[in-house]
Design a protein that fits this description.
Blueprint (H helix, E strand, L loop, with lengths): L3 H18 L8 E5 L5 H9 L4 E4 L2 H10 L6 E4 L8 H7 L2 E5 L2 H10 L7 E7 L15 H9 L4 E8 L7 H17 L6 E3 L6 H6 L4 E4 L1 H4 L10
Parallel strand pairs: 1-2, 1-8, 2-3, 3-4, 4-5, 5-6, 6-7
Helix pairs in contact: 4-5
């Protein structure tokens, strides 16, 4: 039976191989452990195996885990859809937000970020595949949104996040991730982050410039959505 530590080692090996294949520097891609629906103990095991960055989709679940893990120096990333009534808690308890897709949410995060904390790292989520069911701003709306967010005082715009339509076709994966990279390159802003790629397509994402890959299933196994608080 494999352990979380074994799974982390396997994923790191995949990342390293993909970096080499893309002729990118070793360590240029960071691993974000997507820990939604997983208990605090699983995060402790991942921490013991060297992980520090954890991504959560559900605010109440995340806050409960943060309370259980105050003894560990973890870096918390919010990666789920954001409702207006959740922005204060996100601004107060997270280091990164990968899923900002409209200016109203960014403005609230900036206004509600505690003054004693460093600027909140922000990625704009782009709906690169145009799926009606997906969150994210349109590529057309991106330039104006990025410029507006970059000007907010308590945020630091780092780059883009995308979840392309799932496919097993490598050429289709490459095309979607390349489109995200082109969108970022077209913005006249000092950005350094592309948050894209998951368990099934991280190799393609790394080939096309990902700096964070968001990995859940390959680290922690299948998720249980039975009793997940929002």
């Amino acid at each position: 039976m494999t352990t979380i530590a074994d799974n982390i080692a396997q994923v790191r090996s995949r990342i390293h191989a993909a970096e080499q294949a893309a002729q990118r520097a070793a360590g240029s891609v960071q691993l974000l452990a997507v820990s939604k629906t997983k208990p605090a103990q699983a995060l402790r095991e991942a921490y013991a195996a060297g992980l520090r960055d954890f991504g959560e989709n559900y605010l109440q679940e995340a806050l409960g885990k943060q309370a259980e893990l105050t003894d560990l120096p973890l870096i918390w990333h919010f990666i789920g859809p954001i409702q207006s009534n959740k922005t204060r808690a996100i601004a107060e308890h997270f280091d990164w937000v990968h899923s900002v897709d409209r200016l109203k949410i960014a403005q609230r995060l900036s206004e509600q970020r505690p003054a004693e904390l460093p600027p909140l790292n922000i990625c704009i989520q782009v709906n690169v595949s145009g799926e009606a069911s997906k969150s994210g701003c349109t590529p057309t709306d991106l330039p104006a949104l990025a410029k507006a967010i970059a000007a907010l005082p308590c945020l630091k715009l780092r780059g883009l996040m995308a979840i392309p339509e799932p496919t097993d076709d490598r050429a289709e994966q490459d095309a979607a991730f390349a489109a995200v990279q082109r969108l970022q390159a077209s913005l006249d802003l000092p950005l350094d982050t592309l948050s894209m790629g998951m368990s099934h397509d991280l190799e393609s994402a790394i080939t096309q410039g990902a700096t964070w890959v968001r990995i859940g299933t390959a680290l922690f196994g299948a998720r249980d959505y039975g009793q997940t608080p929002n």
